Amino acid sequence: MRDYPGNLPFLKRYSDIPISREIPRKTLVIVSVISKDPSVFLVHGHTLFPTTIFGIPDMAEWFTVPVILIMVLSILTAGCFTTSTDTPPVPTMSTLPIPGVTSNPAQILQSIGEVIGQGTPGGIIDTITVTVSLSDLSKPIDMEKMRVIYSDVVRTESIQPVEGYWGEPPQGYWSIIRVENEIGGPNNLLESGEQFVIRVNPKAPVVPTQLITIQLIPAGGSPLSIRRVAPKTIRAENILDPV
Fold first, then answer.
1. How sure is the predictor about 105, in pLDDT bands with cuts at 50, 70 and 90?
2. Could you tell me the residue ranges of all domains in the chain?
3. Looking at the domain that runs over 109-242, which CATH code has it been given?
4. What digits encode the pLDDT tens for the residues 16-38?
5. Is the torsion defined by CA of 105, 243, 150, 139 positive or negative?
6. Which residues, other chains included, contact 67 with Cβ-Cβ below 8 Å and sequence gap of 6+?
7. CB 110 within 8 A of CB 135
């Protein structure tokens, strides 16, 4: 037996405690030496067993029981709240994927070649010409059901098709100029291998170095967004650079 260092004469350490029966494993042994007869408190699981080493404790020792209980409860509580298991969320009908359904429509249009702006030399661009075709394995689409939206840093406008869908478009309209690699007779159905040349004439003029976006939205497909910037010097025919 030896004293702990410091001014705590009432704390003792016992290297050999004579207890009449074997102490089960995972049992916490707390020794109280505040009174003249040291007491031992055995904690096994969530049960507290008071006992003694040298006989039955007197009244002064029982006065220390609340202190020991507080210590034991603190240890047990810490053990209960420091261990946690994270349970993964259970899938519900609202979170499970639906077979055969995708969140976004497929991309069925693609831009081919350069985007050309026709304008007045030294002035502004009036019309924008783009060439589109079907993406791989896409079914034919009806160009008459396609929507066109023009936007720049200031405005957004919906561009309407010209009557009959062919011809030179006035301001606020779009049209089909020609069809490359046409399959069959003339029609407005874009088929695999064909290329439709589309011209857009927004109401707002395109000034030098202006950033523009043209969206071609086919029925049942994702929009094809074409973003370009006008050159610093406008000519009669201008290649609009991609952003």
1. confident
2. 2-79, 109-242
3. 2.60.40
4. 444 444 445 544 444 444 444 55
5. negative
6. none
7. yes
Buried b (16+ CB within 10 A) or exposed e, 95-127: eeeeeeeeeeeeebbebeeebbbbbeeeeebeb
Is the distance from CB of 54 to CB of 33 less than 8 angstroms?
no
The Cα 115–Cα 136 span in angstroms is 21
Q: Which residue has the tokens 């003792």?
A: 12
User: Which residue's structure tokens are 């709240």?
Assistant: 81
Beta-carbon contacts of residue 135 (< 8 Å; ≥ 6 apart): 107, 108, 109, 110
Tally Cβ neighbours within 10 Å of residue 34: 14
Q: Please give the model's pTM, rounded to 2 decimal places.
A: 0.58
How far is residue 161 from each of residues 46, 75, 143, measured CA to CA in Å? 81, 78, 10
Using an 8 Å Cβ cutoff, are 128 and 204 in contact?
no
| Lookup result for tokens 């000034």 | 207
What is the full DSSP assignment across the chain? -EEPSSS-TT-EE-S----SSPPPTTEEEEEE-SSSS-EEEEEETTEEEEEESSS---HHHHTTHHHHHHHHHHHHHHHHHS---PPPPPP-TTTSPPTT--SS----EEEEEEEEEEE-TTS-EEEEEEEEEEPTTPPPEEGGG-EEEEEESS-EEEEEEEEEEES---TTEEEEEEEES--SSS-SEE-TT-EEEEEEE-SSPBPTT-EEEEEEE-TTS--EEEEEE--SS--SEEEPEE-
Q: Encoding tokens for residue 54?
A: 């040298």
Longest dimension (CA), the chain: 114
Give, in order, the Cα–Cα distances in Å from 239 to each of 2, 121, 127, 195, 235.
Answer: 94, 13, 12, 19, 10
